[in-house]
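User: Hey, quick favor. My workstation is busy. Could you predict this chain's structure for me?
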Amino acid sequence: MLRRQRQDRVLAKADELFAQGRAEEAVRCLRDAVQRWPTDPHMAAALGASLIDSSLDQAGQWYLKAAELAWDDPRALPQAALGLAHIQSWDEAERVCERIEALASPTFDFEPELDHVRGSILFGREGAAAALPRLRAAHDALPTLDHGAVLVEAYVELEMYRDAQPVIERGLRSRPRHSYLLSIRTWMVEEGLWDSHE
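Assistant: No problem, here it is.
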């Protein structure tokens, strides 16, 4: 329990450094964390995420490492699968999804995460229309900020602005400074696509 709290503090510190535009410090913080906790899949996945902008190859290596470390932990595998999907390692992401399904049990509902990852894979491979049913199912079952942001991206690509708006509003209530959702809302307002409810 204490170890998890320490790890959560490290992840929060890295997030704060990224928010302040101090990406190199955030990456250093996560590299130190991976050395301190070399068997933790969450740390490996976080380091992978931190490297997406600077090195897709390194990001992919750390997402694969996270999947390897979490191979028997269905709660940690979705993070690795989603990271692999984000860097367009579709086959690897699908392989991790198959592993999640193989670990399925009545005590843990994997469907929302699997729908989200598989929807992200479909979005990248086949486009928003193919991905939308899975992305909607994931968000309906588990309306997290991550699920909502990808769903909004699909809605916007399909010009389904009325469907996007409540998801954006919900996300911004959860995290008022979410840069992607703020930028989409600003663009929709400027284009006259935002319903002001007045």
